[in-house]
Design goal:
transmembrane, 23 strands, Lambda_DNA-bd_dom_sf, membrane, transmembrane helix, 8 helices, about 375 residues, single chain, 434 Repressor (Amino-terminal Domain)
């Protein structure tokens, strides 16, 4: 069988394609393309990068990526020495107990399968007809953070009166129906609502997570009634932006902590880009849209570190209160945007093919304002 590098080289040369053209089409750096054809796998920072690039390169050339990756793994296994004790071990007499156990297991599996095939189908029909019932939450003070779906409601208790806030639509934004009418809120935006029309905001609602045009995914809303759990409202050109003052809340996709990085002793670098600016820091969302294959690791507010391998057209939303640390294998393979305070701002992380580690965080500058900026880490 032809080697991995030989298959890649033959396919590329037969198509008359240069490394430069492949880089433009796949965002795989030239040095990694050459390393794969030379089978110099030590050039890769890790096996995850190697397998991801090998899959993309072979698919691009029209080869079977599964066969190439299987060939690579079999080579790795052959390179590992067999332990001497296994070679010298005396063969043991045949043991019939595993065979008997396997036979019993097969009989049980067949019997269970026949039971499920021939049993009455009433339970199955009932399960298919089961429809999710709207959930009702109650908030009389403090903060409530839940994942809502269309039809879910929150009953707001104000003194002796109760007011209902319902999630009526989830598209590219969430529409909330309340006594004040329909209110549309976007991802990363926080709004105040005066439910009882007394001239004072009764609740602040922040959209922490939203997958656009996928209502089945729901939406994470954070509702705060008191100042300690809520935030100040800072006016901007287009909308209001919320500033958190210290209550810690967490859900499956959102982490909120007290402001730790935004301090006078940690000013923004002189040449750092200013993405957002406000008298107070507020929650924001980083949206990553992938233009090519990329390994991305992220850590929100110094918690919840995660790592995934993404492909073209994948989208990731990460929420944070203070900052996000990013590790990525190819800066040109991702388009980053910051969403917060009713604004959407593009973020430049690095140059094509560059492996980047950077912080996206709020810092307090000498002028006393908080600025959301990027800080490269060497």
């Amino acid at each position: 069988m032809e080697s991995i590098g030989g298959q890649l080289r033959s396919a590329r040369e037969s198509k008359g394609i240069t490394f430069e053209q492949i880089y433009r089409d796949t965002n795989i750096p030239k040095k990694y393309l050459e390393a794969m054809e030379a089978e110099d796998f030590s050039q890769f920072p890790g096996e995850t990068y190697l397998l991801g690039f090998m899959r993309s390169y072979s698919d691009y050339l029209g080869l079977d990526s599964k066969d190439l990756i299987s060939l690579y793994k079999s080579i790795k296994i052959q390179e590992q020495p067999v332990p001497m004790e296994q070679l010298l071990r005396d063969p043991k007499p045949a043991n019939r107990i595993p065979f008997i156990i396997a036979l019993v297991a097969v009989v049980l599996i067949i019997g269970g399968g026949l039971f499920f095939i021939f049993r009455p189908k009433q339970d199955t029909v009932a399960a298919e007809q089961k429809v999710r019932k709207p959930v009702e939450y109650t908030l009389s003070g403090g903060t409530l953070e839940k994942r809502y779906y269309i039809g879910d409601t929150t009953i707001l208790q104000l003194d002796t009166q109760k007011y209902k806030i319902e999630v009526s639509q989830i598209t590219d934004r969430v529409v909330l129906t309340s006594p004040v009418g329909d209110t549309a809120v976007e991802l990363g935006q926080e709004i105040p609502l005066d439910i009882n029309a007394d001239g004072t905001a009764d609740v602040k609602i922040f959209v922490a997570d939203l997958v656009k045009n996928k209502s089945d995914k729901g939406v994470v809303l954070r509702m705060a009634m008191d100042k300690a759990a809520g935030s100040e409202i800072a006016s901007t050109e287009n909308s209001t932006a919320a500033a958190s003052t210290g209550t810690n809340n967490s859900t499956e996709n959102t982490v909120t902590t007290s402001v730790a990085e935004a301090t006078p002793s940690n000013p923004a670098p002189a040449n750092a880009p200013v993405l957002l600016s406000s008298p107070n820091p507020y929650p924001f969302t980083l949206q990553a849209t992938f233009k090519g294959n990329c390994l991305l690791r992220w850590e929100s507010d110094r918690k919840d570190r995660d790592e995934r391998y993404f492909q073209k057209a994948d989208i990731l939303n990460v929420q944070a209160q203070n900052g996000i640390r990013l590790w990525l294998s190819n800066a040109s393979a991702v388009k980053f945007q910051v969403i917060g305070g009713g604004k959407t701002v593009d973020v430049e992380i690095g140059s094509p093919g560059e492996v980047v580690v950077t912080d996206l965080k709020w810092v307090k500058d000498d002028d006393g304002r908080y600025k959301l900026t990027t800080v490269r880490l060497d």
